[in-house]
Amino acid sequence: MRTILLIVLTLVGLNSGSALQAQSNVTLSFNADWRLMLGEQENAQRMDLDDSEWKSVTLPHAWNEDDAFSKPIHEHSTGIAWYRKTFELPDNAPVDKVFLEFEGLRFGAEFYLNGEWIARHENGVMAVGLDISKYLKKGKNVLAIRTDNRWDYKEKATNSVFQWNDKNFNANYGGIPKNVWIHFKNNLYQTLPLYSNLKTTGTYVYAKDIDVAKRRLNLHVETEVANESGAVKNGNWQIRVYDAEGKLVKSFDKKFTIAAETKSMLSSQALLQEVDFWNWGYGYLYTVESSLSIDNKQIDSRKIKTGFRKTAFKDGMLYLNNQVIMAKGYAQRTSNEWPGVGLSVAPWLSDFSNQLMVESNANMVRWMHVSPWKQDVESCDRVGLMQMLPAGDAEKDVEGRRWEQRTELMRDVIIYYRNNPSVILYESGNESISEQHMAEMKAIRDQYDPYGGRAIGSREMLDSKLAEYGGEMLYINKSAKHPLIATEYMRDEALRKYWDEHTYPYHPEGKGPLYKGNDASDYNRNQDQFAAEAVRRWYEYWRVRPGTGKRVSSGGLNIIFSDSNTHYRGEENYRRSGEVDAMRIPKDAFFAHQVMWDGWVDPDPKGMHIVGHWNYDAGTVKDVLVVSAGDKVELFLNNKKLGTAQQSNRFLFTFPAVQFEAGELKAVSYDAKGVKLSEQTLKTAGLPSQIKLKLLHGANGIYADGNDMVMAEVEVLDENGQRCPTVNPMIDFSFAGPIDWIGGIAQGPNNYIGSTALPAEAGINRVLLRTQFGKPGTVSVKAMSNGLKADSLSFQISDIEQQGAYFQKASSENLPSYMGRGDGLGIGPLNVVRTSLPIASVTSGANQQKAQASIDDNELTDWVNDGKIENAWISYKLEKKSLIDEIDMKLNNFRSKVFPLAIYVDDQKVFDGTTTTSLGYWNAQFPAVEGSTVKIQLKGDTEGKSENQHAEIGGKKLDDGVARNDAGSTGTLSIIEIDLYKRN
């Protein structure tokens, strides 16, 4: 192996404060050469303990990683696990101050160095720093860590549980599943952004006076400097700014004086011009280097990868770089895990997964319940994916010590991630919190990230005066004030291999076991209906998008992106709500979103996708679904035009009862004037003939660091090289060389976790392999299946730069940014499709004092009559006479009741019919009528529908309007909010 060349001067012993001023700091990976033992071990912290029989592991490594997808979340292995590492200090690094940075441990951890207890960390989520300087010895040092990932873990000092240590949401990958770094510094140094334990805040980079059009901003840098040298220090602070290509674009300096044994905050600013702004799908990052020098000799340097963007949160909308952007994306489980390894994947795999979200045209990810790990946050920076970032929560507000734990975690999260441009929203809770608690969270943001352009809010918070954003979990909210974004819509589940009822294994829509005694058909969908439901759900958000009036929805986040080893309701033992499966192979819903989401608000009309495949038995008749952003779609089978599509939910085009005929199925889309926009073709595949292997790995190389990985994709092809989409043959893998098998996932015994033989479901599957620490070389992989031509591939694993217990983690370096969407500037003005009509006064048949609640822009208040049908009317007088042709109403019990209504403009009836259940807002359109008043009247008994419609099953009754028990009343009309419009 090569030796790391550290450009420093001669080492002058431990903790000496006088002779190291010429040396700079060094940061190295501390992931190698750990020993692991499960269970309680007596004297495991002692230096002289013989751990030679313990398991050798390289971090990041959850000791129960094999549980990932083989066991349901509530059966994940828990208990005590000890990790030990023996190391010596390097010969050529400063050691005045030595810090360890753990990116996260699960759940509680006790740290011992050379037999002495040094610290405890207990939140199970966030990073922690340890100052080990005074505990180090010359020669051998032993670090021992006792981890405890039991579900009922309690804080030692208070005996309080942690709210977010929950068996439903936070997959339990125990031990040390994230990276560990060691920082060697002089006794004058810039601190680390690790408040927990160290109480330090590091460096803060932010922009003010941003002018997007002129591409300039004022760059501000603040850095906390500690002087532990015993003497006053005078020196020079240099700021160097490099663009994405590494070119120096700005340089500015400032003199400093820091008293002995103090911390001081240095701050400086400079004008930065010709700025490339970070944007959606445009992960443009700068490197800001902050260095301290004394007598022209650099003694400390810190590099911050960051990006610059302008945000605003107003008028019910989110603005990015001066343009309205509708939030479209996913509520992804924070574990973001993979089969057989959990969350501890190679850095490039985080980019691979998160970039797929962007390629599905998502612009935002909401990590669920707990903060993500550093690798995913930095990955979102690179791929251009906005983040809604939580600290820790389960599903409700709490008091006392459990609330304090949440505020402490939020503080740590903000300090750690405040330089990451993709972090746009801080989430204070997975459910609404009190105004007092919101004020506390906002104060933490204002203290540690006052200029980062990040809003802080919580789920719900619909009527909050303090929250800067909100939004319900599953339903549609509109606002003219702070943005409201649905945080977890569409709970349906579908296995990727279940195309439809006509394709092997012939899965009828919804077939599966009950869930807690309830019909669970929504959680056992096939791919046709999973994709169709994705369209139906998104349509309701898109219909009230920015540009549709004064009060709008700011978007919605679909739960989840990839199938997850968390709470499930379908027939498998893991969550299958993903638009991609656990190996990130797309389902049809992925492409449906790609069509609907390809735009800042309105989609590119050229987007189109034919749902499913075109390989059926002779005589098969089925509906063909096409998702299109065009206005019209035609379907051709072997150049013969088929019948007219039935358009629904704007984007879904259904061609009923199409009879299968082998050949080509082609869809063509057109705009409203008949101009062709796009076309797509499905071809019938021939019989399976061959296997094709494809190697996927990081663009920065493959390294022997014990954590880097490759993914082998296997396809079953016909003789023409086309994938056979309806076959599921067993694939036998073999491999040789310095690599470990992780495997993939498929439906079957133990989900095939860890197996070297598994089926290629729907003609495709993927498997993971992990490099071995310090073992470069050639690896070969072969895939075989009975009756098919086999395939193989080979690749080279590169050596790493190593010195003793330390190495440079090259797999984390030089990962490319994704900029596939371009800089995103100059998109154009918001397309305003209708105008809200201002209302001057309201009159009602009963409860006049509450009538104003139906137009107060507060979806937690409503007007309701007295239960008598003759009084079930309400009338709205406009500020001025106008054409009226559209109305939105949020009716109480919007998902469980329908209302027979008559609507009048002045005295002219413009609507006579029954509402439909919805995710929030019911819409009425009619030919334009000029008038001054609009009257809504209940004209008959209301009718109850299934209370589970559009919602979860088997649990608590979810939101269905305001909290009032009128679901059984038939003469009650209740309007939460109404909007009157004139279409443009």
From TrEMBL:
Residues 212-309 form the Glycoside hydrolase family 2 immunoglobulin-like beta-sandwich domain. Residues 1-21 form the signal peptide. Residues 82-165 form the Beta-mannosidase-like galactose-binding domain. Residues 699-793 form the Glycoside hydrolase family domain. It comes from the Bacteria. Residues 941-961 are annotated as: Disordered. Keywords: Glycosidase, Hydrolase, Signal. PANTHER family: BETA-GALACTOSIDASE, BETA-MANNOSIDASE. Belongs to the glycosyl hydrolase 2 family. This is DUF4982 domain-containing protein. It comes from Sphingobacterium hotanense. The lineage of its organism: Bacteria, Pseudomonadati, Bacteroidota, Sphingobacteriia, Sphingobacteriales.
